[in-house]
Amino acid sequence: MDNQTEKKKCSSKKHSNIDAIAYCQKCKLYLCNKCQNYHSELFESHEIINLNNPNEVFLDTCNENNHTAKLEFYCKDHNTLCCVACISKLKDEGYGQHSDCDVCHIKNIKDEKRNKLKENINNLEELYKQIEKSINELKIINEEINKNKEELKLKVQTIFTKIRNVLNEKEDKLLLDIDNEYNNKYIKGSIIKENIKLPNKIKKSIDKAKMIEKKWNEYNLSSLINDCIIIENDINEINNINDKSNINIKIEFNIKEEQINNLIDTIKNFGYIIAIDDNDKIENKNPIYTLTNHTDFVLCLCILNDGRLVSGSSDKSIIIYNKNTYKPDLIIKGHKESVYCIIQLSTGELVSCSQDYTIKIYNIKGLKYEVIQTLNNHTNTVYKIIELQNKVLTSCSFDESIIFYKRENKEFKKDYQIETNGPCYSIIQTKDNEICYSERNNKAICFYELLEGKIKEKIPNINKCNGYAERFIMIREDLLLIPGENQLSIINTNEYKLTRIIDVPNTNYIYGVCLLNKNMLLTGDKSKIIRQWKIDGDNLTLISKIEQAHDKDINVLLNMGNGLIASGSDDYTIKIWKMLN
Fold it and tell me: What is d(CA 559, CA 557) in angstroms, rounded to the nearest whole number?
């Protein structure tokens, strides 16, 4: 009955052009502000409805299209009151809006509505109790939050107070060292006084020496020799005083500009505040599935476009699993040695590489597969394959080479290769025309410009990886994460600069790493632990972990989508974990 809330004019003829703000149910009059004041003084007992509050506005006459009849009917279809004009079969000039509805007289629903009212009263009373309980709980939570906030502030203040104390102590010590060094190395007041006397002392010695020399033959020889010795001693004494006044020592504050900048950067990046949402954590410490189909190490995982999980193993097989039951749909035994990497091309084909020196390309159709090509260009283990943005297939190998393949007439042909300084274990595309790869011999991470055909930048001795880094991952458009021995390194790929090293003690070596979303990643390692990290800028914060996730080394982690994570291990198993969100 929206029209009931339309602006009404005052019923007084004098104020008929003024909007009414109230309605007297007893007098059946609309009242403007002035009339309402008079009316309230005269008729205090009359019930006044505030027209500015829609919840209070109810008139017992229908106002639908200016109907004037009383509201004596109820439309069940629209849960609203209506008048005789509303249910009229005449559907013209604003009549009959509810003529085709299920309508009854209001007397017929009186008991039903009263019973419903009693039910709603009970519901409201229960809701009131729940709201009161929730408010009390919220108050407790708010008190706890405020308490935690103050504790966190106190913790930060305590830490920075310690740092300031150390800095102040260091400053005081350096200032004291300056005083001591100047006092020990430079001229003292007594030396200055002695130097002031030097000219007179020298003049007396000269006069005495000239007199002795002039009367050399007139004095006793021993007396002359003694006078000569005295003059020689005077000269030595004068030279000694003069030497003290000519000390040329420079005292400096021995610190390099680079050290100052590094210290400032460390302070700027020291500590940060993060909010950790429990919905982003691994749901529980138990996997929802454990797959035991392989008979040797699980080395690689990938997810197909149709949602099926694929695994490769040291048992030389590739398994494709049913996405509902996780039982094998297909077992592919095309390689003669361990399968190190599996990917699906943008065109749908599955590609694998192996310790048997080959790369195999498969056509997968439902429960069937076909090997459509085998590439034999490498002369040793092929560790990694990727598809570049320009659809070029790229592989790296223990044979110290990276090979690029172009597709010609539905088959891949070797286009060219680059040599690496030692075996190459990993490769990733970091920019449109740039790849990054590892070199074992010089323990370096190299950035290679594809268009120019040359190494753009080389960063040696990254992260104790010793050139063995197997899993690179871009955690941001300009940040590359490299796992290593007890450490994770982050490189800014725009500046080609190591920006952060995160220590992960007692992991021995970190093999598995996968990105959950732009804020979260997982790592797996030889300590059999899956660790969950929050990404904050160029830093990582450990927020959760699963102890003893596997019985042996964790080799690979995969984000399967839909909140599912897969892990593969040297214990021959694949485990699937559920995230909260």
Answer: 7
Q: What single DSSP character describes residue 450?
A: T
CB of 473 within 8 A of CB of 521? Answer: yes
DSSP code of 100? T
**Strand bridging mode 401-408 / 393-397:** antiparallel
In whole angstroms, give the CA distance from residue 369 to residue 371.
7
Q: Which residue has the tokens 């017929």?
A: 108
The pLDDT of residue 137 is: 87
CB 384 within 8 A of CB 340: yes
Tens digit of each residue's pLDDT (9 = 90 or more) over 181-237: 777 765 555 566 666 666 777 777 787 778 877 777 776 777 777 778 877 887 777
Tokens of 44: 């205090």
Provide the phi-psi class of 23: left if phi over 0, else alpha when psi is between -120 and 50, else beta: beta
Distance, C-alpha 536 to centroid of its chain: 4
Helices (H), 288-398: none
Which tokens hold the place of 298? 């699980």
Picking from 379, 392, 385, 375, the residue whose alpha carbon sits closest to that of residue 450 is 392
493 CA to centre of own chain? 17
Task: Give the residue from 217, 206, 212 showing the smallest Cα distance to 228.
Answer: 212
Residue 382 pLDDT more than 60? yes
Check: CATH 2.130.10.10 for 278-578? yes
- What does the alpha-carbon distance between residue 362 and residue 371 come to, in Å, rounded to a whole number? 4
The side-by-side arrangement of strands in the sheet containing 73-75 is 80-82, 73-75, 103-105
Question: What's the CA gap between 142 and 579, in Å, rounded?
Answer: 27
- The Cα–Cα gap between 378 and 401 comes to 8
- Domain boundaries, given as residue ranges, for the chain: 2-113, 189-248, 278-578
Token digits for 494?
């725009």
Alpha-helical runs (H) found in 186-217: 189-214
Largest distance between two CA atoms of the chain = 163
Rounded-to-integer distance, Cα 526 and Cα 511, Å: 8
Q: How confident is the model at residue 141 (pLDDT cuts 50, 70, 90)?
A: confident
- What SS3 string covers 515-543? EEECCEEEEEECCCCEEEEEEECCEEEEE
At 24, list the tokens.
């007297």
**What does each C-alpha distance from 404 to 401, 432, 435 come to in angstroms?**
10, 15, 12
- Kindly tell me the sign of the dihedral angle through the C-alpha atoms of 229, 235, 238, 239: negative
The C-alpha R_g of the chain, in whole angstroms, comes to 45
- Least confident segment among 1-10, 118-127, 302-311, 346-355: 1-10
Q: Whose structure tokens read 């393949």?
A: 405
Q: DSSP letters along 444-459, please?
A: EEEEEETTTTEEEEEE
Residue 319 has pLDDT above 90, yes or no: yes
- Nearest-angstrom CA–CA distance, 281 and 516: 11
pLDDT at 28: 79
| Residue type present at position 199 | P
Which helix (H) or strand (E) covers residue 428, if one does? strand 427-431
What integer best gives the mean pLDDT of the chain?
85
| Sign for the pseudo-dihedral over CA of 205, 209, 215, 219 | positive
Sheet-wide strand order for 479-483: 473-476, 479-483, 487-492, 497-503
Phi then psi for residue 311, to 5 deg, are -130, 150
Cβ atoms of 514 and 474 within 8 Å: the answer is: no
